[in-house]
C-alpha cells in the first residue's frame, strides 16, 4: 500500500495569494493590535484560523449553485436541503439558518434564561456566549484527564456521564435547559465522541426528562473515528453511524460551514413540534421565512450536495489522514500537542511550548503571533483569551488549557502547504525562549477574542 497521502480530487480553479516578507508581517500584526482576527485575508499566506466556511466547494456544488431557486417561499432548493437533512438526522422539523450561531441564538434564547443550566462535554465559544447571554450558566464536563494534552484516549471528547447525572440531580432536572454533546469536541482539541458515550447520555437524559441536543457540525469526521476505533462499528458505513447518533438525540444544531462543505449555512433540527413552532416564530422575526431562513437558494443547493459528499470514504480518509500528517510531523519535531490528533485541526499546547510565559500573559496568543510573523500562517488561540474569565477582583481565571488551533480548511491546501507549516515550526522552536507574552488593552464582554486588542508585555 502506498504511504503517500494524495488528495482525492483534481484542482481546476486556483486562488492566488501574496508571498509576504517577515518585515511586512510584523507591520501588519502591529496594525492589527496583535490579534490575527483583525488581519485582512490578503495579509495571510496559509489561513488556519478556522475550518468554518473556508472549504473549497466541489464541481457538483458549483453546478448546484447555478440552478439555485431563489423563491421567497417554497423554493425547490429548500425542498432538496430539507429532504437531505431529514434523511440524515431523522428529525421531522428542519429549520434553516444562515449559520450555526443563528440556530444557537434561536434555541438557547428560547429554552435558556436566568436559573437555567446547560451541560456539555465542552461548549464552543459561540454556544457558550449564546447561553450566557440568555442569563444561563454553561458547564463543561469532559471525561477526567481530557484537559491533559499528552494523555491518550481513543474518545477523548467524551462527556463524564457520572458527573452528568450528579449535576442533573444537583441542579434539578427542571432547571437544566439541555445537555449538549459536541461532536467532535472542538474546544477539547478536536477529539471524537464514542457512540457508547452518546447512548449513555441519551439514557440519563431520558431518565430525568432532560432535552438532549447534538452540536453536530463535524459529525462526519466523528463518524470516521467511531468506524475505526469502536469495534461494533467497523463494518458500519460512515453515514449510517451519523444517523444512529442523531437517533439518540432530541434535536441538533449544525453549522453547515464545516461538514456540509459550504461557505455559509446552518440548520436546527428537532423532534418536538411545539418547540419547533416556537423556533420558527423566532426564525421568521430574525432570520427569514421558514423555507430559507437567511439562506439563498444557491446556498441550500450546495448544502444538500455537501451533506452527501462529506460521507464519501475516500474524502474522509484523506481528511483525517492529512490532518494526522501535520500532527505527526510536529510531534516528531518535539512540538507539544493535544494528543491524539483530531479530525479537523492540530492543537498546539502553548503552555508547554512557552513554559516561561505565565497564563495571564497568554502564551497561546504569543504563539499565534509568532506563527504568523515567521511564516504568514494564521491560527487561533483557544485558551485563556477565548475562555478565560475574571473574578471579583478582575484577576484572570484561566482556561483549563492554553491551546493554539491549526484548523485545516477542507479541500483547500496541498501537502506542500502543510510541509511549509511544519517548516515554520522549526523556526519557532529555535528561539522560543526569547518570546514574550501579551496583555489585553481592549476587550468586549462576550467573545472578546474576535476583536480584542493586545500589547506586548
Write the layout of secondary structure elements.
Layout: H1 22-31, E1 46-47, H2 59-66, H3 76-89, E2 93-97, H4 100-111, E3 117-120, H5 125-133, E4 137-140, H6 161-171, E5 176-182, H7 195-208, E6 212-215, H8 219-229, H9 238-247, E7 251-255, E8 266-270, H10 273-286, H11 297-309, H12 313-333, E9 345-349, H13 350-353, H14 363-375, E10 377-378, E11 380-382, H15 384-387, E12 389-390, E13 396-397, E14 403-407, H16 415-430, E15 438-442, E16 453-456
Parallel strand pairs: 1-10, 3-4, 3-5, 5-6, 6-7
Antiparallel strand pairs: 2-8, 7-8, 9-14, 11-14, 12-13, 15-16
Helix pairs in contact: 1-14, 2-11, 3-11, 4-5, 6-7, 8-9, 12-16, 14-16
Tell me what the structure shows.
The chain is α/β, with parallel strands linked by helices. The protein folds into 2 domains: 175 residues, Alpha-Beta Complex (Aspartate Aminotransferase, domain 1); 251 residues, Aspartate Aminotransferase, domain 2, CATH 3.40.640. The chain is 40% helix and 14% strand. The chain contains 16 helices and 16 strands. The strands form 5 sheets. The chain has a 7-stranded mixed sheet with strand order 2-8-7-6-5-3-4, sandwiched between helices. Strand 12 and strand 13 form a beta hairpin. The longest helix has 21 residues.
Could you report the average pLDDT, rounded to the nearest whole number?
Answer: 96
Question: Which sheet architecture does the biggest sheet show?
Answer: 7 strands, mixed
What class, by secondary structure content? alpha/beta
Topology, number of strands = 16
Helix content: 40-55%
Number of domains: 2
Radius of gyration: 21 Å
Instruction: Give the strand order, joined by hyphens, for the main sheet.
Output: 2-8-7-6-5-3-4
Number of helices: 16
Q: Could you say what the CATH architecture of the largest domain is?
A: 3-Layer(aba) Sandwich
Q: What is the CATH superfamily classification of the largest domain?
A: Type I PLP-dependent aspartate aminotransferase-like (Major domain)
Termini, distance in Å? 51 Å
